[in-house]
Structure to design on (344 residues):
């Protein structure tokens, strides 16, 4: 009799893993503390190898049918200056988490998976248990408090499918969504706690008064119901081989959002876990063997990407480093394509 796999966390990684296991006939239960549909702090921009994972799992076409928009261009701004505009080396896809998570949840259930929503797992993590419950909060990292903000808006004109705006305390990404919406998602840092974000988020996402970002949003119609925030972010890479639990997605490690693509890593880590977990379920692997195989595969897949992303992230949060990198980003050709490929 096949062994049950229990996944704690019904986000991108947990649902994708559940779908892949159900495609293999593995009994799966996913525990999700929240409910669908829901908004999440997320760039809502799928690029890189994650698209290939979705395609191999026969999910990419369904997401496109659900309303994903193709993105083929990117532009970079610093204050009032447009630094660079490039075609993306490969097309990306933009889809709101409101639609994406809900679609994945329904697909998991269609395949016979058991989804327990509005219920938080309170048990132990042992044999057959996978942690996909997202980041582990770390209030202070390197002396800084990192937090993210996200909101949807209409009436925002863009020069490219993806725009990155650098502001004094961080950066804000804008990308086109279906139906004329634009997703705004920013990462910021502060030496102290920042009270009242739910009331003053426009001051952070809106940019300085003389910036292109500020003028972009001057006539925007914000969807207040889509606003969400997340704090306690830690972008220090974690090695799966050093963990005593089986983890996928952000529960495994996080990558800086500008220099990498956490959505892609969620899909990729889920795909890497499917075969070992299926063999565990059928009795061909012990739990320890399955966990080690997953950890080794994830560390091998993501190690170089995390090193490059970490280096770029540190440089972008320092004034001299940011100026140098933005100057280099203005140059077309191999450098832009190389940086994109190494972080995705």
């Amino acid at each position: 009799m096949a062994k049950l796999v229990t996944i704690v966390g019904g986000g991108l990684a947990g649902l994708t893993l559940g779908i892949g296991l159900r495609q293999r006939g593995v009994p799966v239960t996913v525990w999700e503390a929240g409910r669908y549909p829901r908004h999440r702090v997320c760039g809502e921009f799928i690029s890189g190898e994650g698209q290939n994972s979705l395609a191999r799992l026969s999910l990419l076409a369904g997401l496109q049918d659900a309303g994903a928009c193709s993105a083929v261009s990117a532009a970079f701004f610093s204050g009032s200056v447009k630094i660079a505009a490039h075609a993306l080396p490969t097309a990306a896809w933009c889809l709101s988490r409101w639609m994406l998570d809900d679609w994945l949840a329904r697909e998991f259930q269609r395949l016979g998976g058991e989804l327990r929503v509005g219920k938080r797992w309170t048990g132990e993590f042992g044999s057959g248990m996978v942690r996909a419950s997202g980041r582990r909060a770390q209030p202070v990292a390197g002396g800084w408090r990192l937090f993210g903000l996200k909101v949807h808006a209409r009436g925002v004109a863009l020069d490219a499918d993806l725009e990155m705006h650098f502001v004094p305390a961080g950066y804000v990404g804008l990308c086109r969504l279906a139906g004329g919406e634009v997703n705004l998602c920013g990462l910021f840092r502060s030496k102290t706690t920042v009270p009242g974000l739910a009331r003053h988020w426009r001051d952070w996402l809106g940019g300085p008064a003389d910036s292109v970002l500020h003028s972009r949003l001057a006539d925007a119609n914000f969807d207040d119901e889509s606003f969400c925030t997340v704090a306690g972010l830690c972008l220090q890479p974690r090695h799966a081989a050093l963990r005593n639990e089986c983890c996928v997605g952000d529960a495994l490690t996080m990558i800086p959002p500008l220099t990498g693509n956490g959505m892609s890593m969620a899909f990729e880590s889920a795909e890497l876990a499917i075969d070992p977990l299926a063999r565990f379920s059928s009795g061909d692997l012990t739990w320890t063997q399955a966990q080690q195989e997953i950890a080794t595969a994830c560390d091998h897949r993501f190690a170089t990407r995390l090193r490059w992303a970490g280096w770029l992230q540190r440089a972008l949060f320092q004034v001299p480093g940011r100026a140098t990198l933005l100057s280099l980003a203005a140059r077309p050709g191999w450098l832009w394509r190389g940086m994109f490929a190494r972080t995705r």
